[in-house]
Amino acid sequence: MFYRYDRNQLIYRKDKSVFKLFGIISVLLIIVSFFFGRYAKIELLEDYEKELIVLNLREEQSKFTEEKLIVLLKELNVKFPHIVMAQSMVETGYWESKIFKENHNLFGMKQARVRINTAGGTHNGHAFYNDWIESVYDYAFYQCRYMSSIKTESEYFAYLSKTYAEDSNYISKLKNVIAKRNLKQHFE
After folding, report:
1. pLDDT digit string, tens, across residues 72-124
2. Distance, CA of 137 to CA of 14 (rounded, Å)
3. Is the distance from CB of 87 to CB of 102 less than 8 angstroms?
4. What is the pLDDT of residues 10-19, one digit of tens each?
5. What average pLDDT does the chain have?
6. How far is Cα 139 from Cα 59, in angstroms, rounded to an integer?
7. CATH number where 127 lies
8. What is the spatial distance between Cα 82 and Cα 156, in angstroms, rounded to a whole number?
9. How far is it, in rounded angstroms, from Cα 47 to Cα 122?
10. Are residues 158 and 102 in the same domain?
11. Which of 1, 82, 151, 177 could pair with 183 as two cysteines, CB 3.0-4.6 Å apart?
């Protein structure tokens, strides 16, 4: 309870004006909190919607297509990109393999232990990536680290045959895909 001293009668009286003031302040606080709460909710929803748009855009950009792979191989200035493109087709069964779908791994790469890489770890015995783009970057790092001295296609195929391929027919499969799909035309 609030009391006010009455000088005329020299006593303390209950102060009803404080209750009115307190009531008015309470009502104002409720109204203000309602509007700020509502504004904050709207702002949170807008931020949430913006985040969803960004996530959807990122997801759309990271969806794999053959055309996007061609563009990225060109942008990264990958050596012998037609061979690398053929590798992605052979290694993933034309982008249908479990390793590609689950690990986003275009080249059947194992997780690197010595060189710089973009892999997030190992899953199903192969490196896994957040998206297929990271897989291409990892292959580009692999090329830079181990194939920088290679100058010709035949040297490239020889290197792949010795160090990369587990299949004895790997090089002939690559050459066959390159010829059938006319992959060189994409990179001229």
Report:
1. 999 999 999 999 999 999 999 999 999 999 999 999 999 999 999 999 999 99
2. 79
3. no
4. 666 666 655 5
5. 84
6. 21
7. 1.10.530.10
8. 12
9. 35
10. yes
11. 82
